Amino acid sequence: MIPKAFKRALWVFHVNSGSCNGCDIEIIAALTPRYDVERFGIRLVGSPRHADVIAFTGPVTSDMADKVKRIYEQTPDPKVILVVGSCGISGGVFHESYHLEGPIEKIIPGAKCFYVPGCPPRPEAIIQGVIKAWEFLEGVEKK
Amino acid sequence: MKYEVPIGPIHPALKEPIMLKFTLEGERIVDVDVIASQNHRGIEWIGMNRNNPVQSIYLSERICGICNFCHPACLVMAVEEAAGIESPERAEYIRVIQGELERIHSHLLWAGVAAHELGFDSLLHYVWMVREKVMDILELINGNRVTKAIIMYGGVRRDIKDEHIPKIKRMLDYYKQAFGKLAKLFLEDKTIKMRTREIGILPYEEAIKLATVGPTVRASGVKKDVRQDMPYFAYPDFEVKAITPDMLTGETIGDTYDRIIVRLLEVKQSIEIIEQALDEMPPGDILAEPKIIKLINQIKKAEGEAVARYEAPRGEDIHYVKLKSGFEYLYAWKVRAPTYINILSWRPMLLDMQIADIPIVAASIDPCLSCTNRVVIVRNNKEEILTADDLHRLSVKKTRRLLR
Ligand code: SF4
User: Fold this and answer.
1) B residues 269-308 lying closer than 8 A (beta carbon) to A
2) Sheet of B304-312: strands edge to edge?
3) Starting from the edge strand earliest in sequence, which strands make up the sheet with A80-84, in order?
4) What is the whole-number distance in angstroms between the Cα of residue B31 and the centre of ligand 1?
5) B32 membership: H or E segment, kind and range
């Protein structure tokens, strides 16, 4: 259930850790008029320091592993991770490749993660994932 | 005083992690270097070591989620040639329609990103709203919006049914109407013209020297298009002509504005091709060999090699495939995607431009790259990622230092 009113706008920082762009264009599709999540105050921001949610796409290539970690550290608490797409969850079609360090879980152990499976997931699914993350953050705030 | 400003590999709206190093003299760019390895996922290795050839089709779809028809199509073309598989006539037409639908969606996507780079976000939203129409059709005929899993060795996996045709035609009519508005917004708007005219010029000779491909090279006046030079699938029936900006304006400058013109005209061209294809599509089978196991065995027994060329939305895509009899995977597989070649043209385009021009010029070759407010500083060979805040702090510091 979505609460009637949210206390604040949810800001998302999007990181591509070596994805195929499929998930990334669906994230942007979720922001543009057909799905238009901006009306709820959900928007992409340009810096992890402003973000509540980090949306990761991609299987995390070796080059990106340290950057992914650093971005997580730069995001202020409370924060959650939204893993969009199967390849960030398990490696997806790229599993077993020699140039992967992922999935995300392995790079940042113990982080609070929400998963949106699909290759790529539909914008509706991404929105649902964001809302799950949002509910979690509201819960944290209450405590 | 020279500064080196590396940009990337993580950007807010970035679609491909890539790193650019600029050497600046004040605002002027004097050198550009590109470092690309962040998105390496070892796809060819997987195709040669883990996947059977049919699985590799779906893998090649994930080389790029935006061009998710061109890579599998190119791979299929190469394998078909190496293994001697023929696909039915109807399938060739459906492939053409799929390819052109992808071009429409990709060019519109690019137009939105370009508008965003110019700071024209309302146009981004408008263009992406228009784009949803073609996504609906893709979903209707393929069952999925982005990755489609439509192509198969010896044909396609799903037919375009009779009941789909009126819906596709309605979409085409919608685009014909929207086209006028888009052309007006992109080509007549004063801001866009100011930011793109004479910006990021790639002269004719330079474009040929760097072997640039796709809309990038056509915008410099080179009439090069695989669909025209070496037609594949059902393209020989369509007589596609390479589009250059002088068709609209009567002159070719090779700047960012010209690249907008070429892409817009190509959307129109795609609409015409789809219309013709829908009318002329012959009835018949869509798959030469519907049984996958048989197909895999046939490819496993085949021996040979082939190179396939395909005109992707971003330019010429090349796949090389070698098959060895008795070998379970592709014996050799090499992919050369269009952006790989086009990226080199950033250097001549960006030299002598200003920092503020980087986003739109970089985006003008459609590299799936958006602008940034995060940079990486390379100091003693160690990288530090800076956020906008850090940058601002640095900038304030520098101002103070200069004032002292
Ligand atoms: S989950 Fe699939 S569509 Fe999304 S980035 Fe990974 S490979 Fe691409």
Assistant:
1) none
2) B304-312, B315-323, B332-336
3) A43-44, A11-16, A53-57, A80-84, A113-116
4) 34
5) strand B28-35
Nearest Cα to A61, choosing from B42, B56, B51, B147?
B42
Closest CA to A91 of B78, B162, B306, B42: B42
| Pairing assessment for the beta strands A80-84 and A53-57 based on DSSP bridges | parallel
Q: How many domains does chain A have?
A: 1
Nearest CB among A45, A63, A96 relative to B12 is that of A45
- Asked whether B223 lines ligand 1 (CB < 6 A), one says no
Q: Which helix (H) or strand (E) holds B151?
A: strand B151-152
Judge contact between B361 and B213, C-beta under 8 A. Answer: no
Query: Is residue B403 assigned to a domain?
Result: no
Flag whether B232 is in a domain.
Answer: yes
Q: What are the structure tokens assigned to B210, written together?
A: 């760097």
Q: Rounded to two decimals, what is the model's pTM?
A: 0.86
Put simply, whether A76 touches B (Cβ < 8 Å) is no
Structural domain count, chain B: 1
Interface membership of A86 toward B (CB under 8 Å): no
pLDDT along chain B (404 residues), means of 10: 71 59 78 74 83 87 85 90 89 91 90 83 88 90 87 89 91 90 86 83 87 88 88 87 86 87 90 91 88 88 90 88 87 84 81 76 63 32 45 50 52
In whole angstroms, what is the distance from residue B345 CA to residue B219 CA?
Answer: 13
Residue B146: give the domain boundaries.
Answer: 43-339
Mean pLDDT of A37-50: 83
Q: Which one of B10, B45, B66 has the shortest CB-CB distance to A98?
A: B45
Between helix B164-188 and helix B89-117 the angle, nearest 10°, is 30
Q: What does DSSP assign to residue B210?
A: T
ipTM topping 0.90: no
